[in-house]
Amino acid sequence: PPPPPPPPTPVPGLTPGVAGECGYGAAMTISVIAKLTAKDGQRDQLAEAMQPMIQHVTDNEPDTLKYVLLQDTADANVLWMYEEYTSMEALAAHGSSDAMKELGGATREFAAARPEIIVCNQLGGKGV
User: Is the pTM of this model over 0.85?
Assistant: First the structure.
């Protein structure tokens, strides 16, 4: 059998126990799924606080392929981010940007907890 894949490149802002990893093999794209839980009744404010970061990514991160804020239909306090990057380096650049540092302060008063972040390698599927 082939040797196991090398360990992933460390990504600033992802903490052991908070970040996870799924998938093995040759990644075509790096995907991130992040669960953002708002304090009770403050999901709209949390979503609004995310808008400057969404604009920053749109204007300044060409290696961020997708950066999509989603509203959970079952939990009134949950938002999800779906993100795609060209490489782990692109994800690392995103995570260490000044805009990301500012996002923490902007969302702190509305967030119930730190985001739950999962980093994945895409293995295949429609749209990949």
Answer: no
CA–CA dist 32, 22 (Å, integer): 10
State the sign of the Cα–Cα–Cα–Cα dihedral 38, 40, 43, 48: negative
Question: Which residues sit opposite 23 in a β-bridge?
Answer: none
Which structure tokens are listed for 126? 């429609």
The SS3 call for residue 122 is coil
- Residue type (1 letter), 63: D
Tell me 38's DSSP state.
Answer: B
The 10 Å Cβ neighbour count of residue 78 is: 17
pLDDT of 52-76, one tens digit each? 999 999 999 999 999 999 999 999 9
The Cβ of residue 117 has, within 10 Å, a number of other Cβ atoms equal to: 20
| Tokens 């490149």 found at | 9
